């Protein structure tokens, strides 16, 4: 039984617990990586030849596909293209050509937008420190149908040669798959 003098204590404990839960739910942003080195600038890392290896996980965490990507990036000023040639573990191949643009701005944020043939609308995001976050909608063909999937990408520059990428793929706010990619720059 809660006596009158215990009520303020329970209310205070409840408020602290609620505040702690809300703080735990706060979104991570690239600003959280502002001081991290080396600094990631897409126009520098995705310029020239690159390769990548990746895994696609279903919602249960099982690897359902592996892939390798050979890429070439080319930038002129703030405009760039990144041509990706995918080879999947089942032998299928695909290609995606990104058209990227660094947006003007001051301060530590480096803002970018981009698009590709299978991207619905515009991909948008920003980098700070060694991290880059962006999101977009991908028109994903599956079994003769195409589904619009929300892609939430996080990239982390480890050193001048290695960039790690984690992507959460969702539909109607429900995570349906995740992707892990390790980029390699010669």
Q: CATH architecture, please?
A: Beta Barrel
Helix content: 10-25%
**What is the strand tally?**
10
Percentage of residues in DSSP E strands = over 45%
Radius of gyration: 21 Å
Query: Pairing-aware structural class of the strands and helices?
Result: mainly beta
CATH fold topology: Lipocalin
- What overall form do the CA principal axes indicate? globular
CATH class: Mainly Beta
Strand order of the largest sheet: 1-2-3-4-5-6-7-8-9-10
Could you characterize the architecture of this molecule?
This protein has 186 residues and is mainly beta. It is built from two helices and ten strands, in the order ααββββββββββ. It has a single domain, classed as Calycin beta-barrel core domain (Lipocalin). 12% of the residues lie in helices and 58% in strands. A hairpin with a 4-residue loop joins strand 3 (79-88) and strand 4 (93-102). The N and C termini lie far apart (68 Å). The model is unreliable at 5-24 (pLDDT under 50).
What secondary-structure arrangement, pairings included, does this model have?
Elements lengths: L5 H19 L17 H4 L2 E11 L4 E14 L2 E10 L4 E10 L7 E6 L3 E10 L2 E12 L2 E13 L4 E10 L2 E11 L2
Antiparallel strand pairs: 1-2, 1-10, 2-3, 3-4, 4-5, 5-6, 6-7, 7-8, 8-9, 9-10
Notable characteristics:
58% strand; Lipocalin; 10 strands; 186 residues; mainly beta
Task: Give the gist of this structure.
The chain has two helices and ten strands, in the order ααββββββββββ.
């Amino acid at each position: 039984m809660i006596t009158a003098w215990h009520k303020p204590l329970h209310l205070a404990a409840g408020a602290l617990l609620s505040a702690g839960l809300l703080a735990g739910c706060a979104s991570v942003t690239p600003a959280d990586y502002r001081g991290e080195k080396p600094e990631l600038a897409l126009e520098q890392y995705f310029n020239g030849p690159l390769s990548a290896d990746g895994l696609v996980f279903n919602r249960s965490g099982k690897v359902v596909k592996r892939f390798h990507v050979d890429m070439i990036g080319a930038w002129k000023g703030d405009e760039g293209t990144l041509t990706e040639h995918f080879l999947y573990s089942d032998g299928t191949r695909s290609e995606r050509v990104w058209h990227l643009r660094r947006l003007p701005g001051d301060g530590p944020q480096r803002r970018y937008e981009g698009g590709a043939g299978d991207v619905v609308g515009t991909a948008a995001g920003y980098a700070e420190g060694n991290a880059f976050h962006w999101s977009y909608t991908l028109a994903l063909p599956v079994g003769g149908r195409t589904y619009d999937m929300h892609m939430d990408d996080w990239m982390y520059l480890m050193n001048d040669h290695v960039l790690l990428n984690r992507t959460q793929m969702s539909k109607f706010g429900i995570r349906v798959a995740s992707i892990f990619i390790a980029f390699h720059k010669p």
